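The instructor's notes for this session suggest beginning with a concrete chain rather than abstract definitions. Hand out the sequence below and ask the class to guess, before any prediction is shown, which regions might be ordered.
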Amino acid sequence: MLRLGSKRLLRQATAAAVAASRPVQVAAMPRLYHENVIDHYNNPRNVGSFEKNDATVGTGLVGAPACGDVMKLQIKVDEETGQIVDACFKTFGCGSAIASSSVATEWVKGKQIQEVLSIKNT
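After discussion, reveal the predicted structure:
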């Protein structure tokens, strides 16, 4: 009786091991980020910083305690026209934080201050 039980258990264990060793076919995983986000992460634009004592430079610094991202965004403004003539950033954090900082600098360049104030995160 013990011999029959052990043989049956051995067969079941062997069948389970064989089934587990077969490759599992999984459908291709969908991309989690849009290709533009991936592009800005792989090739960030406008990374750097401006001279902090320059009167035409404005600096914003924000951190996200939940995930540990820290972002510094700087703009250089033409005092006569109010137009943003340049922008740069330094971000320490995840890929989406780096990509969104890069995108933000591209969005604000060449725009008026009032126009940029209407940009939202939605």
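Then share the key points. Strands lie at 57-64, 69-77, 84-92. The longest helix spans residues 2-21.
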